[in-house]
Specification:
Strand 2 and strand 3 form a beta hairpin. The protein is mainly β. The mean pLDDT is 89.
Length: 80
């Protein structure tokens, strides 16, 4: 989180190494996505030039996991 700024997500790439993992993107504690279940080595890639979603000012972007398995990837974002 950055004081006075919002995080606007432009692109996401995720790969879940372990199986049976559900991931949920959150703006602080508020869900920005539904729970997405992945099998071993499952994942997704998505991008949007004007933004996939935008968080609330002064709030961290969180990725919640349902299992203690490796989730790798990257996000592209801007602070607005």
């Amino acid at each position: 989180a950055v004081v006075g700024k919002k995080i606007r997500v432009l692109a996401v790439v995720l790969v879940c190494s372990g199986g049976a993992n559900t991931v949920t993107w959150k703006d602080g504690s508020t869900a920005k996505s539904g729970g997405m279940g992945f099998a071993a080595n499952g994942g997704y890639s998505i991008e949007c030039d004007w933004g996939l979603w935008e968080g609330t000012a002064n709030t961290a972007l969180n990725l919640n996991l349902s299992a203690a398995t490796s989730v790798d990837g990257h996000i592209t974002y801007v602070e607005v």
